């Protein structure tokens, strides 16, 4: 009988185990290159001696084994088709698990990066607040030096110094604060549940920073499309032809900021010609 098996052949063996007078017989059926085959049977097929046309034998320690090839048949079409589909499904499952592991690794990496950014944002917020308090303290010291001066002009200067002592610092802070808000807005559009949880935290942190800045007089200038251009609050980015009235705001390119009543960064807008 032919011991050269092909993939998906249905092979049946009888394994006889003999030790002294004790004999054990077991029958095994495998789908070749599909089922997991007993290592002992594989060893007998590979290293065993031909006992007769359909048997091989091997001696291992005190035991003698006889492996008889009972049958070697081709699978019927339906069974082979089912096995082929199962192999295909197993391949898909394996690929899915591999991709799932890769995605999980990427997600873990992203979580670590988000955690680092969160810690940095908190540290930066604390640093901003400390710097604001320090500058305010210096401004107050400056005011105290001039308390003895009583004329109206001097009092007005003191009031102005108190209101706008933070202007230089606020001007330096506006751009990174604006970038932080843009980053939060962009990240919130990503469909990732884990990331969304962190974005909620970042939004809360941003609101805290914004509230602190409002306490010191910094407010956004947020014109709307359809508003009329105001040179005290807005800066022209571009003038375009439009059916709307002259100086009507057509698009807002960037928001602005004011410190109390003073515009320190005008909103950038496109207006009608």
UniProtKB/TrEMBL annotation:
<comment type="similarity">
    <text>Belongs to the GrpE family.</text>
</comment>
<dbReference type="GO" id="GO:0042803">
    <property type="term" value="F:protein homodimerization activity"/>
</dbReference>
<keyword id="KW-0175">Coiled coil</keyword>
<dbReference type="GO" id="GO:0051082">
    <property type="term" value="F:unfolded protein binding"/>
</dbReference>
<dbReference type="InterPro" id="IPR000740">
    <property type="entry name" value="GrpE"/>
</dbReference>
<protein>
    <recommendedName>
        <fullName>Protein GrpE</fullName>
    </recommendedName>
</protein>
<comment type="function">
    <text>Participates actively in the response to hyperosmotic and heat shock by preventing the aggregation of stress-denatured proteins, in association with DnaK and GrpE. It is the nucleotide exchange factor for DnaK and may function as a thermosensor. Unfolded proteins bind initially to DnaJ; upon interaction with the DnaJ-bound protein, DnaK hydrolyzes its bound ATP, resulting in the formation of a stable complex. GrpE releases ADP from DnaK; ATP binding to DnaK triggers the release of the substrate protein, thus completing the reaction cycle.</text>
</comment>
<dbReference type="InterPro" id="IPR009012">
    <property type="entry name" value="GrpE_head"/>
</dbReference>
<feature type="coiled-coil region">
    <location>
        <begin position="107"/>
        <end position="156"/>
    </location>
</feature>
<dbReference type="GO" id="GO:0051087">
    <property type="term" value="F:protein-folding chaperone binding"/>
</dbReference>
<dbReference type="GO" id="GO:0005737">
    <property type="term" value="C:cytoplasm"/>
</dbReference>
<dbReference type="GO" id="GO:0000774">
    <property type="term" value="F:adenyl-nucleotide exchange factor activity"/>
</dbReference>
<dbReference type="Pfam" id="PF01025">
    <property type="entry name" value="GrpE"/>
</dbReference>
<dbReference type="InterPro" id="IPR013805">
    <property type="entry name" value="GrpE_CC"/>
</dbReference>
<dbReference type="GO" id="GO:0006457">
    <property type="term" value="P:protein folding"/>
</dbReference>
<keyword id="KW-0963">Cytoplasm</keyword>
<comment type="subunit">
    <text>Homodimer.</text>
</comment>
<keyword id="KW-0346">Stress response</keyword>
<keyword id="KW-0143">Chaperone</keyword>
